[in-house]
Amino acid sequence: MTSPSEPNPYAPPAADIGEQSIAIASAAGDLASRWQRLGAALLDFLPTVAALVPFFIGVMTKALSGQALAAADGVNPLTTFLAAGRLGVVSLVLLVAVLVTQWTLLGLRGQTLGKIVAGIRVVRLDGSRASFFRTVVARNWPFFICGLFLGNAGSVVGTVDTLFVFRRDKRCLHDLMAGTKVVRVAPNA
């Protein structure tokens, strides 16, 4: 029989992977609250809505004047904008400008306009600066493409992604895919 000080060679391994992942996630910076993340997402949505205003005006103008809208094929999102005429094209250009601005800020600073206002930043799990590839290509583009081309299925994917924020480490599916987390930053950081 073995004494209490000697390890039992037949005992199952003792590992708590869940607690280790929480320790990694909270290292190098306090995690952003769910409210900060929601606020940043809502603020990021405002320029997108503003960019879509000309599109809606174009659609309404055509509809009220009795003009038939060109049929959107349901697969190519560009045809929807082109169906709204010149204002649809203006809206598309504005939308591309908003996306390029947000993705550039995200790649350079780890922050979008909303994240800057909310005082949060995207970083790697160890707290170091995340690259453009991690913050934009791996973290945003898969869900952007799903939303663009999958219609309602893309909405389901986006919802599942968002619901992951209720994990203990507050990381969404896009954070898990990119190996990132969102942390609070000091003012003027």
What would you note in describing this structure?
By secondary structure, the protein is mostly helical. The protein has one domain (28-184). It contains nine helices and two strands. The protein has helices at 17-26, 34-64, 77-83, 86-109, 113-118, 132-138, 141-149, 152-163, 173-178; strands spanning 120-124, 180-184. The chain has a two-stranded antiparallel sheet with strand order 1-2. Helix 2 (34-64) packs antiparallel against helix 4, helix 3 crosses helix 4 and helix 7 (141-149) packs antiparallel against helix 8. The N and C termini lie far apart (60 Å). Mean pLDDT is 80; it is low at 18-28.
Quick structural overview:
The protein has helices at 17-26, 34-64, 77-83, 86-109, 113-118, 132-138, 141-149, 152-163, 173-178; strands at 120-124, 180-184.
Succession of helices and strands: HHHHHEHHHHE
**Mean of residue pLDDT?**
80
Helix share bin: 55-70%
Biggest pleated sheet: 2 strands, antiparallel
Which parts are unreliable, with pLDDT below 50 for 5 consecutive residues or more?
A: 18-28
The proportion of strand residues reads: 5-15%
What is the global morphology? elongated
How many structurally independent domains? 1
Number of strands: 2
- Classify the secondary structure makeup into a structural class: mainly alpha
How does the SSE layout of this entry go?
Layout: H1 17-26, H2 34-64, H3 77-83, H4 86-109, H5 113-118, E1 120-124, H6 132-138, H7 141-149, H8 152-163, H9 173-178, E2 180-184
Antiparallel strand pairs: 1-2
